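User: Hi! I'm a student and our assignment asks us to look at how structure tokens line up with a sequence. Could you show me two examples?

Assistant: Happy to help. In each example below, the sequence comes first and the structure tokens follow. Example one:
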Amino acid sequence: MPVAPAVRAMCPTNEITPEDARILLSRAQADPVWWVREILQAQPWGKQAEVLEAVRDHPRVAVRSCHGAGKSFVAGQVILWFTYSFAPSIVVSTAPTWRQVEKLVWKEVRASYRRSRVPLGGNLLPKRPELQIVQDQWYAAGLSTNDPDRFQGFHEENILVVVDEAAGVPEDIFEAIEGVLTSGHARLLLLGNPTAIGGTFYNAFRTPGWKTIAISAFDTPNFAAFGITEEDIAQGAWEEKITGSLPNPKLVTPEWVADKYVKWGPTSPAYQARVKGEFPAEAEDTLIPLAWIEAAMARWEDAPTGEPVEIGVDVARFGGDKTVIVTRRGRKVMPLKVYAKQDTMETAGWAIEERRASGASRIKVDVIGLGAGVVDRLEEQGYPVSGINVAESPVDKERFADLRSELWWNLRELLDPNPKVNPEPVALPPDDELLADLSGIKYKITSGGQIQVERKEDMKKRLGRSPDRADAVVLAFAPVKDSGFIFV
């Protein structure tokens, strides 16, 4: 019996009677926190323990969490507890991308399996996320979400489905999962950052029959241990409250939250979702949904590069602004290069260096302000450069108020994750400030029925920062041919 080693470890003598096994197995089923602590030698903190107990008690559990709260860790503990405490059982886990399946939850499964106080038994496969107890009858496995048919054919009395980063999982996958949850002891656990307004994960917090749990950064050990509140962050009083080492430096820290409070602002969608663990209050005038941006960053590592290779340069205009150089290879944006306090000649030099390194076919520069000098220098040196004045008239004058609006809307459409609309959406590098820039921009419809995206200066006044990173990405995807704009 695969739980025998665990039973032996808990038994006070070397002799294990059937009654010993029955009692201890019953305790494992009744007390997942005890099992995780005693067998896996892990120490789930308050909210993590609440998740374990919720899965024990409720058929459907949804957990919305801030960034860095250890949700993938607790998912791994739930998978192992359920697999070994109920015989036979089938456990299926998934996430929006294959990398997230392998590198997040199953990384935790493997680490906890190896850290176990006693050998757990079974066969943890080395090359794919699967733990076999009895082949095809008793196992846990990670599945990708590219095909709903993968979720068919799972039938067992004890079955658990774990969905990590649930806000980014397609709805047809949730429909397929429903066909799995038909047994007498079926459990569904959804975990994720609350980024998407709509869909199964969002609706779980508004539908009867779900046990819901919310985890804010201020609930986590590094805050709770010192009584650090959001008011402390706002007033800059958090540092004086830290009187010792952080209980768990791997989890979200007060320093990180304080940084995001200043850079993002407490009302930004990024702060609401990634710090407070709340669904963002995205208004109808939000240009790009936070969920689209999160999805673009989640697929970045696995996204292929392609053609064309082009560079966007947003040149700093004011003291606190940054010059940002972005290279995109096809629909994959490479890590951003950010410079402070550069003059036009230095900026031109960095753009030339980036062009040499990437082999880009074109450099596109915002010519308003200091950018004109950069364009002049690049033209003088014979480089393929397009100066873009976003205040000029758009190509589609009936639909857009100005070229800035047209270019931003172009990026919006390229980020749309709906495969029917956009079969190859843009992939963005994980970058917290880029995420905040893109999710913070707003738009309106003019009296003439045109789309008008918020001006850079207006966003800076509203949020206290300039969206330099986002503007550089917009430029990298600006549809140009020679010096003219071609939208397809």
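Example two works the same way, sequence first and then tokens:
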Amino acid sequence: MKLFSKEESYISKKMRLYGNVESDSDISIDGSVYGNVRSKKHVMLGATAHFEGNIEGDTVLVCGYFKGTIVAKRMIEVRTPAVISGDLISDSVRVESGVTLQGKVMAKTVEQDCLPDAESAAEEPAPVAVEE
């Protein structure tokens, strides 16, 4: 994933932001944010980030503390040492081993052709192996 372009908004680890942020460019957060962030591009929470609110973006990378809901158009990636309490909603979600995650992971779109037919699945019981 390409993380950032030259047009980037940055919240350093010594900053605290209370309120909502909207941007057409990438946003990198290493500090504390209490509010909502909306970006047309990438949002990254670094390992020192403390975020409480909601995030909307094209792609979102989380390495720090997050509490809220993330909605990403293309992808959400969660890496250690991330701690997440909330919901992740995107077409693609990657969670690295060792991450603490309490919440739901949901896909926005599901291909109907990939789902089993509920009636046929109920009529055909799964085989059971019996050991003697």
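Here is something you could point out in your write-up. Residues 8-123 form one domain.
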